[in-house]
Design brief:
D-Maltodextrin-Binding Protein, domain 2; 47% helix; 21 helices
Length: 463
């Protein structure tokens, strides 16, 4: 039987609901205020006296060799290597980045079976941290890493890296997964403004379609993008209490609330002309391409909008579009009473306990490491001591400010809380079931049945 993990705030449900509404409102306000501007990153943020360099003491590690594994590619991997280079400079250690494949738990299992585990791995799911602990792979954080974690992170971000109350993971990278990016020229030509509600979004999509541009780009080849669509709708429509229950499989996927969310999602997925390439094309489009095709082709791109997190900026950066002018963003519209705020992240976990591995994770828990990558763009840190001024444009600064302001009151990506067999494996579980739903969005009941069957198997007892 697979143990499951979840994250819940320690406040009352009523307070959590109210705080989520405040966080969503703050996010909406901040993005609206900045979506029409951009700058060079030389000002506009308030560092509040937060240190940005050499704030953490690191040991000399001359001669030490480390490996760190993550499922990161392209610019994200390249930028992270600059962070590792700074660690090498300060300590004398040598660090090798090991590209991993999804699901990373399976990748690590094969490395461990071969006697060659990396020293540290960046795990994208709380459920994966729990699995690594249950299998005896993960090592607890040492006192230096714990001290840095407690100094720089809210209690909520500390808690989701814990297993049975003991800290194992440092959330080096976060994501705001409740954003829709859009081609500003397409919106301007169609005469539409940023939608605030789901109904507004549908109306905006129709107007964009009437103007001659396909409304949405969907990276359906990566099943996690589809789980993010569902989660944002579900959180806003069903509310945080139901969201927590479904995340823990305390209610079944055959619940009426799931039917309602899938039916709502089908309002977009069932309109094949609303999706670039139709469902077949979307299922062959990986996430990076779903972003770049929205911002190439001038005022006639393949799509006018693409839904995904702040990290889409990395891919926008691969085009000629400029964030804040050519590429703008608005919060995922409210489906129910409140707009959703869904977060994700990647946690550094030690697999080979050593002085060098502990030092590397201590560094990753510091504002020093996160500030380096923040300046490079396409990255968001839950570290509250990273100065806003480190982020390279006003849009990113506002997203970061909203994340930190939300404190403990956010909901973590639901599929990332699930056992990886259900919520994090290509071609299986929720990823596959929602890909099938994109192909046939009229089959709501069948999709629910398949989701429940796969969830019950992955959680072990279906309860």
């Amino acid at each position: 039987m697979h143990s499951r993990t979840t994250f819940r705030t320690h406040r009352t449900r009523r307070a959590a609901r109210a705080a989520a509404a405040v966080a969503a409102g703050a996010l909406a306000l901040s993005l609206t205020a900045c979506s029409g501007s951009d700058d060079d990153g030389k000002g506009g943020g308030d560092s509040s006296g937060s240190p940005t360099t050499n704030t953490v003491a690191l040991p000399k590690l001359d001669g030490a060799h480390l490996e760190i594994a993550a499922v990161w590619t392209g610019a994200e991997q390249k930028n992270f290597k600059q962070v590792l280079a700074e660690f090498e400079k300060r300590t004398g250690a040598k660090v090798t980045f090991v590209p991993a494949q999804d699901p990373i738990i399976n990748f690590l299992g094969s490395k461990i079976a071969g006697g060659q585990p990396p020293d540290v791995a960046l795990l994208p799911q709380p459920g994966a941290i729990k699995q690594a602990v249950d299998k005896g792979w993960a090592k607890p954080l040492g006192p230096e890493a714990q001290a840095e974690l407690e100094k720089n992170y809210s209690q909520g971000w500390q808690d989701i890296g814990k297993v049975d109350g003991k800290p194992y993971g440092v959330y080096y990278k976060a994501a705001n997964k409740s954003l829709i990016w859009y081609n500003a020229k397409v919106f301007e030509n169609a005469g539409v403004s940023e939608p605030k509600t789901w109904k507004d979004l549908l109306n905006t999509a129709q107007t964009i379609y009437d103007s001659g541009v396909t409304p949405f780009s969907v990276g359906g080849a990566d099943g996690w993008t589809l789980t993010d669509w569902f989660e944002n709708i579900y959180l806003s429509q069903a509310g945080p209490e139901k969201y927590d229950q479904l995340a823990q499989h305390k209610i079944k996927w055959t619940d009426p609330s799931v039917k309602q969310a899938l039916t709502t999602l089908a309002e977009i997925f069932s309109k094949k002309d609303y999706i670039a390439g139709g469902p077949d094309g979307a299922l062959q489009t990986e996430f990076p391409a779903s972003v770049t095709q929205t911002f190439t082709g001038g005022d006639q791109p393949k799509a006018g909008m693409v839904f995904e997190g702040d990290f889409a900026q990395v891919n926008i950066g691969e085009t000629k579009a400029k964030v804040g002018t050519d590429a703008k963003v608005f919060p995922f519209p409210a489906v129910g009473d409140t707009a959703p705020v869904v977060s994700g992240g990647d946690a550094a976990v030690i697999l080979k306990d050593s002085k060098a591995a502990q030092a590397l994770v201590t560094f990753l828990a510091s504002p020093d490491a996160a500030t380096i990558q923040a300046k490079l763009g396409g990255y968001l840190s839950p570290n509250k001591n990273v100065p806003e001024s480190a982020y390279p444009n006003e849009v990113q600064r506002k997203i970061a400010k909203a994340l930190i302001a939300s404190g403990d009151d956010f909901r973590f990506d639901m599929s990332d809380q699930a056992p990886q067999a259900f919520g994090g494996t290509p071609g299986k579980g929720e990823w596959k079931d929602l890909q099938d739903f994109l192909q046939n969005p009229t089959d709501v009941a069948g999709t629910q049945a398949r989701l429940e069957k796969d969830a019950a198997a992955a959680y072990g007892n279906g309860s």
